[in-house]
Fold this sequence. Notes:
By secondary structure, the protein is an alpha+beta fold. Helix content is 48%, strand content 15%. The chain has a 4-stranded mixed beta sheet with strand order 1-5-6-7, sandwiched between helices. A 3-stranded antiparallel beta sheet has the order 2-3-4. A two-stranded antiparallel ribbon has the order 8-9. Helix 1 (54-62) links the parallel strand 5 (41-47) and strand 6 (66-70). The model has no long low-confidence stretch (mean pLDDT 88). InterPro entries: Cas1 (IPR050646), CRISPR-assoc_Cas1 (IPR002729), CRISPR-assoc_Cas1_C (IPR042206), CRISPR-assoc_Cas1_DVULG (IPR019856), CRISPR-assoc_Cas1_N (IPR042211).
Amino acid sequence: MRKLLNTLYVTQPDTYLALDGDNVLLLKDDEKLGRLPLHNLESIVSFGYTGASPALMGYCADRNISITFLTQSGRFLARVIGESRGNVILRKTQYRISDNEEEATKIARNFITGKVYNHKWILERMTRDYPLRVDVEQFKSVSSQLSDILREVRNSNNLESLRGWEGQAAVHYNRVFDQMILQQKENFSFQGRSRRPPKDNVNAMLSFAYTLLANDTAAALETVGLDAYVGFMHQDRPGRASLALDLMEELRGIYADRFVLSLINRKEVTSSDFVTKENGAVLMTDEARKMFLKAWQTKKQESITHPYLGEKIPWGLVPYVQSLLLARFLRGDLDEYPPFLWK
């Protein structure tokens, strides 16, 4: 099993990344802010526009350490990775299936099965853990509707119908999402997804979490030899890691949504951690992002028993394991891609 290493998140504005021997050097106006050994890192995520030296990018590419550049608000800019180490046959199979809607639907169907199943059990667990805090009858009703949609998803034979059922499932799930916010209701509420830009505190956190999850998933796919930019459900678009978006669907609720809810309900974030821009966009402050990233790293170290493998692994390796299972299916080692089914 692959070892879970650290991700270096560089959040301080105007920080330049350089190479110093086998270390990454953080510089600001020629001042050294820090120096870290690269052998402990599996990826670097930099927020801002200053950039990195060609020497550092070359060193990281040779050693399969990805470097991702985001804006200060967390919007994806670019990603530097090394040459593909996956075999040609694997990627040719991926490209062939991506161009065949019938075959692509079979895989996409399992991604969405995992997503809807996991959303259903998030709601079931809420009724078990907080029966006096949520509308149990409504949660049970939505859970039942998700069960019905699961059956339709399993019978879908084209991407259009699959996207339609996935959209319906999202509507039902979002209808009760606000009830899962148990604390700080005066400052944290959810009335629906707003993305570009996020219009409230909850959406700001969800967007940031999804960005981090997409980056982790893309890195995992590239590690096992797959092309993160050629998907089965999400259409190909320049600069979009479509397969990463596909694979992370089953992890959005159980990983990102529950993480955001826990920060709110534990009062690890407050209203003072957000700013509203003139255009109505709501963003986290620099300090809030640092706290968020630290908690994200801690979450990745927590252990979970993988439902398919039956082995204990850190949460942070779940995208890697699912990528590996997908690669095994494409190679013909598995009869079907097994989605991550949490309960």
